[in-house]
Amino acid sequence: MKNINEILETAPYSLDREAKHRLLNERLHELTHHHYTACPEYRRMMDAAGLDMKRLPDYEELPFLPVRLFKEFELRSCAKKEVVKMMTSSGTSGQQVSRIYLDRETSAAQQKCLTKIVSHFLGTKRVPMLILDSSAVVKNRNIFSARGAGILGFSMFGSRRQYALNEEMELDIENMKSFLQDNEGETIFMFGFTFMVWQHFYKKLLETGYRPDFSHSVLIHGGGWKKLENEMVSPEEYKARLNEACGILPENVHNYYGLVEQTGCICMECKFGHLHTSVFSDVLIRRPLDFSLADKGERGLIELVSTLPGSYPGHVLLTEDVGEILGEDDCPCGLMGKYFRIEGRIKNAEIRGCSDTYASKF
Amino acid sequence: MQVNSELILLYPMSIEWKNFFQQFPMEPFSEETVIFLNMLSVSLLHDPEVKAFPDVVTFAFFCRKGNILKLKDMYTSSTELRMGRGVVFHIAPSNVPVSFAYSWAAGLLAGNLNVVKVPSKLFPQVDLIVRHLRKLQGVNASKEMTSRMVFVRYDRTSEATAFISAHCDVRVIWGGDASIAAIRKNEIPPRAFDVCFADRYSLAVLRASAVLELNDKRLAQLAEAFYNDTYLFDQNACSAPHLIVWLGSDIGQAKKRFWEAVYRIVAAKYVLQPVISVNKLVTFYRQAVAMDIKHGDTLDNLVVRAELKSLPYDIEKFRCEGGYFSECTISSLDDFAQIINTKYQTLAYFGFSVEELQKFIKSNRLKGLDRLVPIGRAADFSLTWDGWDLVKTLSRVVSIL
């Protein structure tokens, strides 16, 4: 049995279907036993679901927890005193937020996993980093949520760091100019949240007329397309427009998909626009009617499994996102593993009836 | 007198509020009222468009003269002189299309002037009924009645609730606990009062032997009746059962028969939204943390059942819309009497006699449960609702010695 550190030595896109399946079965079974013993709530849920702990099924048949449960319960598989960090989701005000408890081991595994995955796209050498956000996000501990954690998590890839926006969320042109001058000829790693990049970087470049040269840069962005869908911006257009505004090559723009409940285990977009699972995680698509596995190309609810979560039972999760599997081990980009597409969030319910408790309960 | 512009006046086309509020009430079930409701009924039933909305058709039948006169016998007495209280302000539930009309009709039958806030969400049923009311405005025979009602639509930002509240004699509030609390922040005159139809919890009780005795046709009818009580309004009407209680012997077999029949109807009729599947799973796990449950055998997420080992006091907190049932077995009706609190509204039954149920209510001196109805009639409107006699509540007694 490999422990998580050994698993993380595997090259992130190296295993074929069979080898990865074996690895995931071993690790996810181990995690299921661990959480069953260490987290009383998880144990009660699994008992109710009728899971036979003596004969765990294939990981594709393991019961999945809806991510919303992390908003309702303090789900922990480690002692309180071992918690080194609590992550919260970026819920809008008034909404309950997810609380994810990390101990030293899981926290370290997250960081290591992220490094492995991102290095595959950025190289192992640290490079100058331009953060397409405001420094206020990490300064203000009150908004230290998924956004702040994302910036901090990715910051380790930067040899030196510069924020593109000042504390008022305005484009900091002067500092960007000198940053570009100082790092002339170097690859620059740009990082930001999908919508922030669009709203506060791309649009402001257009407004100000400033045209920096980022033709040697790599942009990694995440956080969801919802707001951009409202503005009717497709991923292709996103890349093309950024290219017009600052010269970044479309194949160097990588979206990533990840849950705060499975930080570190992100799915990166390849140059063909496909999101890829690494060997450290897997994506399964479920039919809403009966939660059976959907066929390739069939839309359904996204389930994500991760080899990392040791301090909380987040190894097998049902998201509230809808997507479809595009293929496995055969993407033209050459990366092994499943690749998929996100179609967006699951639609809110249209409910008849006279109760309004729905909104307050969820 | 004016209300801000956020308010949309659906009926009449224009209004002078001062004149409206100055009108006098009537006796309950006055002749004009009976005639007017009958005219509305005829008008609705002659409209081919109405046929597409069974809930509007049911309302139209409710308004028929024959039905109203029957209700008059039940709800008035020759020895008592009653008069409407004045202006009744109805705040209809936001999600049930036709409830506003029943609430209004109850206010009208009790002899009142009525201001009705219809759901802010748009429903074709609301527009349909309002359109027919407008049509009656031009009819001579209904002239007296047409100035006695106002239908408005507005959202939370409007000051209309404050304005109308300040001028009403009774305020009828349908809504969840949170919306009732919010509405109550608006003052009403000293002698006025609120009638609140808050969030409630409902259950169903079945006798296993009665289910097993049914032939296939009758079983299908029972399943259909159960569907109408639950899925028809996404199991989100207050009267929709969430807890299913079984009594008697051979329960395993009866359950199997019943749920298979229910499943057939649900699979044929109900559209399950993906998010509801997730909601059901979340509810199941929430419930699993709080109490011992097992997942009942089901083919898919259309019908989800949580089988209880025992019946906890707070079972009402664990519910989900769209076809999620907690289920338990008891040996006598008295076994669940101790969990019934004021939150409990409707008990839908199958296989029990009225006498048995009367005895159950009396001997356990229950604080909750306002309606006990055969399965299939949980959603029926009645002038007695949530334990209130609406005609008596919305009118006053005048004593002459």
How far apart, in Å, are the first and last alpha carbons of chain A?
A: 39 Å
Q: Could you tell me the strand content of chain A as a percent range?
A: 15-25%
Arithmetic mean of pLDDT of chain B: 93
Number of helices of chain A: 12
User: What series of H and E elements makes up the topology of chain A?
Assistant: HHHEHEEHEHHEHEHEHHEEEEEEEH
Q: Assign a percent range to the helix content of chain A.
A: 25-40%
Textual characterization of the structure:
The complex is a heterodimer of chains A (362) and B (401). Chain A has helices spanning 4-7, 17-38, 40-49, 69-72, 104-122, 136-139, 146-155, 173-182, 194-208, 226-230, 235-246, 357-361; strands spanning 65-66, 83-88, 99-103, 127-134, 158-165, 188-193, 217-222, 253-257, 267-269, 275-276, 281-286, 300-306, 316-328, 338-345. Chain A has 362 residues and is of the alpha/beta class. In chain A, strands 1, 4, 5, 6, 7, 8, 9, 10, 11, 12, 13 and 14 form a twelve-stranded mixed sheet that branches. Chain A has a two-stranded antiparallel ribbon with strand order 2-3. With 401 residues, chain B is α/β, with parallel strands linked by helices. Chain B is 38% helix and 20% strand. Chain B has helices at residues 17-22, 31-45, 54-62, 65-75, 99-109, 124-137, 143-146, 160-165, 177-183, 208-213, 216-229, 251-269, 274-290, 354-364, 390-393, and strands at residues 8-11, 81-84, 87-91, 113-117, 149-153, 170-174, 193-197, 201-207, 241-247, 293-295, 304-308, 324-330, 344-350, 371-374, 384-385, 388-389, 395-398. Chain B has a seven-stranded mixed sheet with strand order 10-11-12-9-8-13-14. A six-stranded mixed sheet of chain B has the order 1-5-4-3-6-7, with helices on one face. Chain B has a two-stranded antiparallel sheet with strand order 2-17. In chain B, α2 packs across α6. The longest helix of chain B is centred in the middle third of the chain and has 19 residues, at 251-269. Chain B is globular, with a radius of gyration of 22 Å. The mean pLDDT of chain B is 93.
